[in-house]
Amino acid sequence: MSSIKNKRKMREGVCVNYNIVVLDRMTLGDDLDLSPAKAYGTLCVFDKTPPELVAERVADADVIFVNKVKLGKDNLKDATRLKLICEAATGYDNIDLDYCREHNIAVCNVPGYSVYSVTQVTVSMVLNLVNHFKEYTRYTASGEYTKGGNANILTPVYHELYGKTWGIVGYGAIGAGVGAVAKALGCKVLAFKKTPVDGIECTDLDTLMRESDIVTVHIPLSEETRGIISNERIASMKKSAILVNTARGAVTDEFALCEAIKNGSIAGFGTDVYSVEPFDTDSPFYAIKDYDNVCLTPHMAWGTIEARERCFGEMLKNMQAFFDGEIRNRVER
C-alpha cells in the first residue's frame, strides 16, 4: 500500500474524483475495510446487486469493483463514463471481454492472491475425507465414545496417503502448492498440464483420472475446460478414489459426481464451488449434502482474511496503474 500512497503524493494538486462502484461487497466479506478506495473519489458500496439493478447502479461509474456479478452488453451499454472494471478474483468469466474491448473498457484481475488459502483448504478437505473426520468426531460429540467403554474406535477404516497417487488437474500456482503437500505426505503426484514442467510427472487427463487415488481440480473455467471432468471420466475413476474441486463448479459434470456418490462408484467427494451459487434445493448437491463421505463448503476456499486483504490491495494497485497509464494485470488486451 505504501507505493500507492507515494504515487498519490506525487499527484497533489490534481483533482482525482472517480466514481467507484462496488457491486457485491458481501462476496469479499463485511469485515474487509474498503475505505482506502475513497482516496480516489466517491465510493458507492452495495452489499449485493441483483441482475435487474446492475445497469442502474453502474450508469455513472468510472470504475466498477466486482466479484460475481455478470457484466456485459445488457447492463453496461449505458455506462458511458466507464473506464475500468476491477475483478476481485483471478477468474473473470463473469465479464464479457469482447464487449469491453469494443468499448475501450479496461479489465484487470488479481492473479495469485489466494494461492496459500486455496491450497490450505484443498488439502484440508482431502484430509477430512480420507480420515473420515465427520464420522469420528460424531462418536465423541454424540457421547457414544464416552458410553461405549472402548479406548479406541477404528471404524470406518481409513488409509494412509503415503504411497497413494494424487492427481492434480491444472498445475499452476495452486496446483503446484497442493502438489508440494502431496509429495510431503509421501504421495506419487500426477499432473495434467498443457505445458509439462520439470520435476513432475505430467500425463493426459484420462490416465490421471483412471490411476489416481486422490484427484484435486485447479483449472480455470473456459469453453475448453467446461465439463472437462465428464461423466465418462468420473466413471473411469477407482471406486476407492476421492475427488475435490476448488476451481469452478462448471468444469465438472456436477450431476454425474453426485450420482457417483449416491451409487458408491467413488469413495468421497468435496467441493467449494458450484455452477450456480448458492445452489438451491433442486440442485443435485442438496440431496448429498449430509452424506458422511461428502464435504461441501460455501465457496470460501479463497477467502482467508490475508488473501482478501491481499486481493483488495492489488485491486487498488491495478486502479492506480491504469490511471497512471501503466499496464498491470490487464486481461482484455
Search tags:
333 residues; alpha/beta; Rossmann fold; 5-stranded parallel beta sheet; 12 strands; elongated; disordered N terminus
Short description:
The protein folds into two domains: 2-111 and 305-323, 3-Layer(aba) Sandwich (Rossmann fold), CATH 3.40.50; 115-296, NAD(P)-binding Rossmann-like Domain (Rossmann fold, 3-Layer(aba) Sandwich). 33% of the residues lie in helices and 14% in strands. The protein contains 13 helices and twelve strands.
Compute the separation of the termini in Å: 26 Å
What integer value in Å does the Rg equal? 22 Å
Helix content: 25-40%
Q: Determine the strand fraction and express it as a percent band.
A: 5-15%
Uncertain residue ranges: 1-15
Total domains: 2
Q: Name the CATH homologous superfamily of the largest domain.
A: NAD(P)-binding Rossmann-like Domain
* Number of DSSP strand runs: 12
Overall 3D shape: elongated
Instruction: Identify the CATH architecture of the largest domain.
Output: 3-Layer(aba) Sandwich
Q: Numbering strands along the chain, what is their spatial order in the largest sheet? A: 8-7-6-9-10-11-12
String of helices and strands: HEEHEHEHEHHHEHEEHEHEHEHEH
SS class = alpha/beta
